[in-house]
Write a structure and sequence with these properties.
Length: 274
């Protein structure tokens, strides 16, 4: 496969949460084109089985494979835990997840070696963060809490509402009796709730989003493979499986720019054609 500098970066998510990663990629790599797909029709992925999430992820990757890509970011923690390995086996371009970048950032930030993780049911049940953290630093204490109500708030555009503050406070209640100095936002939807989360956790707790570290890792990989775009004005494309209008509203507010949005139809797939 002939991979070229002008090829795009594919970014996928269960919904709008991956826009937090897309925004950071745009900031760090402003000359790179992005093809984004948010599976808002079937969001959230958290309560679904690992096999179901893997199936959905492969369908999205198959859809994105119609475009010339030079790298793919699985900007969904649940999908990263369930399908990253399988996707890497099936396509010949670099594939990044968001778990390991978040883990590295948290280990860099913690002083007490006591780290909290919040995420969807699927991500927390997979223990992907705990295993990745302890693989690097076995002495770290990890406290994981599932917050299944957070992502739907974001998907419904309620992340800046009074309801969001109430739901966030309730979801983070288990940490009232746990002393941590670092909290990993183990779902790419959660940075849109960062203000409310920080208010509950207090100033002494460092809030970690994997978006910045993921974009930095992507930059390093592209540079190493001589695939960074230059003298190039990118043309971004956004797709959703759900309502384009609600997606567009959230996306334009978060990204601070006008976007083109199209509806995508996904098909069952056994093996990705790339």
């Amino acid at each position: 496969m002939d991979i070229k500098k002008e090829h795009a970066i594919g970014i996928l998510d269960s919904g709008v949460g991956g826009l937090t990663v897309a925004k950071e990629v745009m900031r760090q790599l402003p000359q790179e084109a992005i093809i984004y797909l948010g599976d808002t029709k079937r969001c959230p992925y958290g309560p679904r089985t690992k096999e179901e999430v893997k199936k959905f992820t492969l369908e999205i990757v198959h859809f994105l494979s119609q475009f010339p890509l030079k790298a793919l970011v699985i900007a969904c923690n649940t999908a990263t835990a369930a399908a990253l390995h399988e996707v890497r086996l099936q396509i010949p371009i670099p594939v990044l997840g968001v778990i390991k970048p978040g883990v590295r950032a948290a280990i860099k930030a913690t002083k007490q070696h006591r780290i909290g993780v919040i995420g969807t049911q699927g991500t927390i049940q997979s223990q992907a963060y705990e295993q990745a953290l302890k693989r690097i630093h076995p002495e770290i204490e990890v406290y994981s809490v599932a917050c299944p109500q957070f992502a739907p708030l974001v998907e419904n555009g309620l992340h800046q509402s009074e309801l969001a503050e109430k739901v966030v406070a309730e979801g983070l209640a288990p940490f009232q009796n746990i002393s941590i100095d670092t909290l990993i936002l183990g779902c790419t939807h959660y940075p849109l709730l960062a203000e409310s989360i920080a208010k509950v956790m207090g100033e002494k707790v460092e809030i970690i989003s994997s978006a910045e570290e993921t974009a930095a890792e992507l930059s390093t990989i592209l540079q190493h493979q001589s695939l960074l775009a230059y003298d190039y004005t990118p043309d971004h494309h956004f797709f959703t499986t759900g309502d384009p209008h609600s997606f567009k509203k959230i996306a334009e507010t978060w990204l601070g720019q006008t976007i083109k949005i199209e509806q995508a139809r996904l098909e069952p797939v056994q093996k990705i054609s790339f």
